[in-house]
Specification:
The chain contains nine helices and eight strands. The protein is α/β, with parallel strands linked by helices. It has a six-stranded parallel β-sheet, with helices on one face. A two-stranded parallel sheet has the order 7-8. Bound molecules: 6-hydroxymethylpterin-diphosphate (HH2). The site of 6-hydroxymethylpterin-diphosphate has 21 residues, from strand 1 and strand 5.
Length: 257
Amino acid sequence: MGVVNITPDSFSDGGRFLDAGAALAHARRLADEGADLVDLGAESTRPGSAPVSEEEELRRLLPVLQSLKSLEKPVSVDTRRPTVMQAVLEAGASMINDIEALAAPGATAALARSGCAVCLMHKKGDPATMQHDPHYDDVVGEVRDFLKERVDAARAAGVAADRIVVDPGFGFGKTAVHNLALLKGLSGFRDPAVPLLVGLSRKSTLGLLTGRPVGERLAASLAAALLALQGGARILRVHDVRETVDVVRVWEAYQKA
Ligand code: HH2
């Protein structure tokens, strides 16, 4: 899953793809590099970010979605608002990537009506404050229980089981210690019926571990991608598609050897 952020303030690529032409060109490049799907986001959810209005989110998303039809790749939209979900699904999105795991009133219904796919992600707290001293007694168990509860809720609302993927939500209300525990415990999330998505690309935990700024975290991101694959991840949400595809190729060959 290649990331295209149509935002002025995303932590690693904010401001680069704000106009529809630049976003389309970037999405094309990611597809050419081997992305199987593209994740479009119009609201940064980095720690400390401010929410954007629904109108602004749609103003950014709809022209890009329209132009991405020519890409002929599934497009996922990173949003937590049911009205935005509804509008982008009507405009051709194949998947909703919801960092709130369909918690907003009306979200499960919007999804169930559409027949599209969904990524249910765990987060603790709101982006504005979620990194202020997050606490868990058992981070792996708590995240696993939360995701199971959200999968059950989505199924009960009519979202087909084979349209759901889950994501532990690295960096969303989690310290580096929590993120490492989740990465190490990833196999505990393994469920053949529910594919696991992991997004660690360029994240601040990798900066903490390596001492590198966001633009210099490629090697760390690739190491994290490999560990995630080994732990059972089946979708990697990344900014650097070409290099990650090489990691996937090496890992697949290793699996088959
Ligand atoms: N991470 C980010 C945004 N959306 N969605 C899922 N499912 N999993 C993630 O780990 C995830 C996500 C944050 O990264 P990015 O989009 O690059 O930055 P920003 O939120 O600043 O736009």
